[in-house]
Structure formats: structure tokens, C-alpha cells
Amino acid sequence: MSNDETPDRPEPPRPEPADQEPARPAAPRGDGAAEQPPEKADSGEGTGHGYRFGGLRRELPAERPVPRASAHRQPLPEPLMPDGSMTGRRRLLASLWPPRVTRPQLTVALLLCVLGLGLAIQVRSTNESSVLRGARQEDLVRILDELDDRTQRLEDEKQRLVGQRTELENSSDQAEEARKQTQAKEQQLGVLAGTVAAQGPGITLRIDDTRGAVEADMLLDAIQELRAAGAEAIQINEVRVVANTYFADGGKGVEIDGHEVSQPYEFTVIGKPEDLEPALNIPGGVVQTLEKERANVSIKRHEKIVVDALRSAKRPDYARSSS
């Protein structure tokens, strides 16, 4: 070692401010390296704090004020997928709202409405026929017998008309035969029109309505059942029932063709008793309906009864014979 070279001595530490970290001792210099003057640490008054390490000054990042959480934070938009597409929830909402109706959707909705209407009608018809489904075997047999009797009556009427046509064709005096048949037809039409009295086998139906619950539509149902069973002449109390007879609810009872009729209602019906009585006693028929209203119903068969209530013949205003 030469005399002009002096051995390296450690640099004494310099006093630093109280708010700064103490300086670390400098690293030993190598051969021929000039000593670097130590840098003075910041006093902390700037935007950040510094420290020394290995003779270099490091700057800390500036402190940023943290914003306080808002009491009413706005909802953040739902993030998208990494590829920019929407999430499943957003796709679902976009497909549902706003609603977009297409022609296939309208067609399907119309078909569903028609299907629902058909099901409702089917359920209603099933409920209406539930009375017959719950009927006893004896009642069902009686209803079938009544239908057979109606078919037989129609067949007999057909045979009678065919016989009249044959007589007209084979008779030597066709004019006299035609006159006889015309008179017989006039008597039949007079019975149906109520212009002549009638007699024959039949039944009487008596309805005692002390509570006043029997209405006009119930009596009309009884008339329709009797006509369907083959009734040829019907009289209620003193009023003859014909094709254009109408029923209405009155103050003290029921009005029939403008005549007020009070209870008890007595039906005098000419027809086959074996057909008329079962028609009224079918399950869910006239008798059961009246009994539900707490009306007393009685039916009697007769070998001969008379329907003598008459109606005046009225000339039609517009209809004329075409023959």
C-alpha cells in the first residue's frame, strides 16, 4: 500500500430529522470508485415519503383519499361475459320484456282458448248427464221402454197414413173417400187446435203449491214432457193448452194465455197412461223438480177422461192454404 492512498473509513452517520428514518451506513467502495455524497431524505412535506436502500432513494406512492360510501348507492350494471355477450339473466329479461307476440304464438293461444272452451262444454254436459248415470236400473229400463213406445207410435202413424193413401188410390168413389178422410182430419186438427172437445184414456196431474214456489217454467217443462210422451189434448184447470200457448209468472200464480191460474194446478191429459206417467217420474224429471220445491204431486190413471175447455178458432192473418 502506497503512502498517498489512505484506507477507507466509514462515514459517520448524519443526524436526520425526527420524522425520518435513520440513514443506513454506506456500502464499502470498491477500487477506484468515487464516494457518492449521501442524499438527504425528504422531510415528508411532499406528496410521499422516501427511504434509502443501497444508496438509492425510493419514493412511496402518494396517498389518495378514499371516498366515503354513499347512503344511496346506485346499483351497478350487471357485468357482461368476457367475450362481450350477456349473462343468462339478462338474456331472460330481454326475451320477456318488452313482450313480442308473433303469429305462431297467437295461433297457439287461439287453439288453447278453443280447447278450454271445449273442455268446459264437456264438463257441463257430463254434469247434466250425471242424473242418468246415477239412476237405478229400474229407472233406466223404464226410460228405454218409453223411447221404444215413442218409436212404436211413430211407426203406427206412418202405417195409418200409408193405409189412407192406399184407400184413396183403390177406391172406386175417390171423391167420397176423400171427403170422409177430410172430415176425420178436421176432427183431429180441431182436437189439436182446441176448438172441439176430446175424450179418451189418460191421466190427471195435481200440483199443490202452498208455498208459491212453482213458477211458469216448471209448468212449461211438464207440458213438454207430456207432449213428448204422446199427449194429444191437455187442459190446465179451465185453460186449453195448444201449440201457441204461453206461460208467464203472475201476481198470485201463473198466467196461461193471459188467464191467471192459481194453485192447485190440475192437468187433464189424454194419451196412453202407460207412457204419460213414466215420462213425469223419470229421474231428474218433472215430479222430482216439483218435490224439491216442496210441492205435493199426485198422478192418477183413467180409462176415460174428458177435455172440454175450448178455444175460439182464429183466422190466420197471412197464412193461406196452398191447395
UniProtKB/TrEMBL annotation:
Which Pfam family is one of this chain's hits?
DUF881
Q: Which Gene3D superfamilies match?
A: Protein of unknown function DUF881 (3.30.70.1880)
Here the segments flagged for biased composition (Low complexity) are 23-34
Which stretches does the entry tag as region Disordered? 1-86, 162-183
One term under GO cellular component: plasma membrane
Q: Where is the composition biased (Basic and acidic residues)?
A: 1-17, 56-66
Instruction: Give the source's domain of life in one word.
Output: Bacteria
- Recorded family membership: Belongs to the UPF0749 family.
Designated name of the protein: DUF881 domain-containing protein
Q: Write down the species.
A: Streptomyces buecherae
